[in-house]
Automatic annotation (TrEMBL):
This is Iron ABC transporter ATP-binding protein. Keywords: ATP-binding, Cell inner membrane, Cell membrane, Ion transport, Iron, Iron transport, Membrane, Nucleotide-binding, Translocase, Transport. Belongs to the ABC transporter superfamily. The keyword Cell inner membrane applies. Pfam families: ABC_tran, TOBE_2. One of its GO terms (molecular function) is ATP hydrolysis activity.
Amino acid sequence: MNTPAKGVWPRWGQRGTAGPAIPARLTFDHITHAYGTLTAVSDLSLDVAPGEIVALLGRSGCGKTTLLRVAAGIERQSAGRVLLDREEVASAKVFRQPEERGIGYVFQDYALFPHLSVQDNVAFGLKNMARAEAREVALRALERVGLRHHAGDYPHELSGGEQQRVALARAIAPRPGVLLMDEPFSGLDRRLRDSVREETLAVLRETGATSLIVTHDPEEAMRMADRIALMDKGSLIQIGPPQELYRRPKTLFAARFFSEINELDGVVKSGVVETALGRAAAGGWPDGPAVVALRPSAILLGGPGRDGRIMGSRFLGDTDHLEIAVQGLDSPILARAQAGAWPEGSAVRVRFDEAQALVFPAAET
Ligand SMILES: Nc1ncnc2c1ncn2[C@@H]1O[C@H](COP(=O)(O)OP(=O)(O)OP(=O)(O)O)[C@@H](O)[C@H]1O
């Protein structure tokens, strides 16, 4: 193996060598799924275009895994339809078995067979090939994830990160039109996670497979996905490109999901919302009480504004995370600033960038 340059993790294998798939359109049409009396997914519709990478984002228990299992055919939904290239694969009338769907699945715990070698694990899904060919294809997939030299080893002899790569190789080897990944990086330590994520993304782009990736980490979703589907309690809350969910969340729940936020009470009057920290356009909301959500990056320090004092400062590298007591506000304002610019105890004037104010009706809280 190459020695990585200082601070740089080695690339897995030669980029551009993962076999291309014929991507399929994956459609969930009004899917509901219940386990007994518990409704895990509720009337959810989602259309993933061929070759698109969509992140299913949500808290633990919101139904993400259930949706993947329904897509794969591991679970049969209570109601609604699953379509691949607009053809029903699961409905009240039709149920295609998992192996008939051309879908790859990377399980959260990788689900490698302990009694099979790494190469045989990867070859396992290549049922319609002669054994020698399947083993050759498996080797190529292992080569792409940089693990050819572990082909004869058993899963327990590999690290968690290596096992994840075997699981990925196994999923892509049959060139599935759709690839489902359930929290594929959650078992990896943070430093490793970044490089594994980047390499996985390169593999996904090379295969071109339509990909649905489950995660509870908004940053991961933003890094990987063309679109993010945000779920809560079995329902789809919002779907769109990462910038749209971050900058124009439709609900306070969606705004809260992507970063910590400051929530200011406000009152809308004639299209303008007034708060203790300043005013902003009310974004079409009618007159009445409102909440103005401000990400820490929307808080402006220095210049004009309300009087405040830095109560706490946490060093984050290039920036400091600040807690600021502001006259007239009950809770401290959270802000970001260049490291060292505002030491604890210093006086500061505080306002916010109107363009970044996210306004919601108060009833939603
Ligand atoms: N086989 C099952 N039997 C009964 N209830 C289940 C089953 N699988 C999941 N559930 C329940 O359904 C709900 C949704 O679970 P699901 O695993 O789909 O959520 P998730 O968003 O993937 O969560 P996590 O990230 O924790 O896996 C949860 O309340 C869970 O307890």
